[in-house]
Amino acid sequence: MERELKTRFSGGALGYLWAFITPMVWIGFVVVLFWVLERVPPIHVGAEIFVATGILPYIFFRQTVSALGRSIPSQRYMLYLRPVQTNDILTATMLLEGFNAVITAIVVLAGITLVFGVKLPASFANLLMCLVMAWLFGCGVGRFTAALGLISDSFARSVPLILRPMFWLSGIFYTAAELPEQARDLLWYSPLLHIVELTREAYFIGYVSPISTALYPLGVTAIFFLVSIPIERFANKRRITRHRL
Asked: I need a surface site. Which of 34, 95, 103, 242 has the fewest CB within 10 A?
């Protein structure tokens, strides 16, 4: 974890600050877009906190997947140390991303609360559970893509392109209740939409989503984890065999 921290956030304190600057810039950009388009949040809350409750779960998912995808290539020389396995590198990256997610959520949400006078979350426990769920979903998808990336470099390079549509399908700009029935039925299969809807239920008193369920994103996360195990083992065996040859 210390090696991953120094590798990712090189450049002193300013390097680590980018972990907080990125979500703030994203939130600020989308809020400005709301103002320009005169978009009113469907929930009776400010655009700042409405956007934040959508952006944060997405960012935790996206950054975790991206970090796991580059952790093994960036730390590949650690694999020459016999006790170190790819699982150790991936686990260290996941824990570091989890720590960053907690700190980022505290900084961003506390800042919005103080600056804009936003009310505190309706349920801190449920809010924490939702943010952890977003991180876990990122861990599951990230381990899967990292394992496949060990086999196919082309797949590893295509992951950012595959993830890009998730920004528009995760409910950052809208709620499930706003969608037409056919669109809502289709987007039900987006785990991030469930997580964002649950996050808003936890934050805003009285908001009830028509589709949210924790079982679906958790089930999808478990599937990605389970499928990644044999892929990772196969990739490691192939690497060891090539090294011996």
From this structure: 242
